[in-house]
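Morning F.,

Quick status update on the modeling queue. The single chain you submitted on Monday has been processed. Sequence for confirmation:
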Amino acid sequence: MPEKIKFYAFIAIAAAMTACSGESAAAEPVAYPQKYIFLFIGDGMSPSHVSVAQAKSVNLSFTTFPVKGALKTRSADNETTCSAAAATALATGTKTNNGRVAIDTKGKPLRSIAYDFKDAGCGVGIATTVSIDHATPAAFYAKDYSRDNYYSIATQLAPSGFNFFAGEEFLDPREDAYAKTSQAGYIIVQAKEELAQVLPSQKILMRQSENADTWSLADFTSIGIERLSHSKGFFFMIEGGKIDKYSHDNNGDGVVKEMDGFSKAVAVALDFYKKYPDETLIVVTADHGTGGIGLKSNGEFTWTTDGHTKGDVPVYAIGLSSDFFAGTMDNTDIPKKISKFLTCQ
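Structure tokens below.
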């Protein structure tokens, strides 16, 4: 038996003995060290999005995960959260008001768990199907009173020092956002053939023009894994950002397409997990629901709103420490639980 497995087995046996001794009525799951941690966020993905995609014959890779839970989503100042407040909760473990990015209700800057992983020597990656300065990715590397301050957010990407970024172009680059990124040592890649020129040690920003199809989210995931695997371990946040966009538009076909693309990205991570099952944790969740999507008996889409919805969102997990994500929890619990597994040894 490999030494690492012996160590895990010892921890599990000790935990079981403690529970049986009556010292703990409900023993907490064992926090196994994990070298590779994936956090997938389906922006706007409610349980009904999952049901509709499956009804439309989309084979969702993450619904087969052994652990399932639910996430409460309200923000500090509203029953219905926005993406910025929800992403702040998922990145920092703290509630904030709608519109704020990693700034709490009293104006105090908050620390993303991505920085904890970086400081521990892990590689860090952030990928999305929308602009890289959009609310969800922004909360993991930037801080601002308003999610709409895109230029401020964009200029905080380079100082993060994270290894890998991928997404659509900055929404407000002005004349120098990309120049500042390059000056900080990032290689900006816009074409597939340019990837071969980037050394493993170099930081990278994959820049995709809006509505271009040069790379899919699955491509970003695969390339990100390849880049981050040169580190001792990694934390990789991957967002399916356009699920929300098409839900706001009440575009059912677009939602189904994006759910399929999100699922394929998770499948890439799942293939990686199968190679390193004792060292990999994958958590799939959402920031909030959008649109209240449903289906009529004839297969036509129905909608209750073009805005966000209040209900819980799903959680799926796989890995030795995945039991931490069972049951109903608050969105602030996700980073707190993930931080238990921090290791890049």
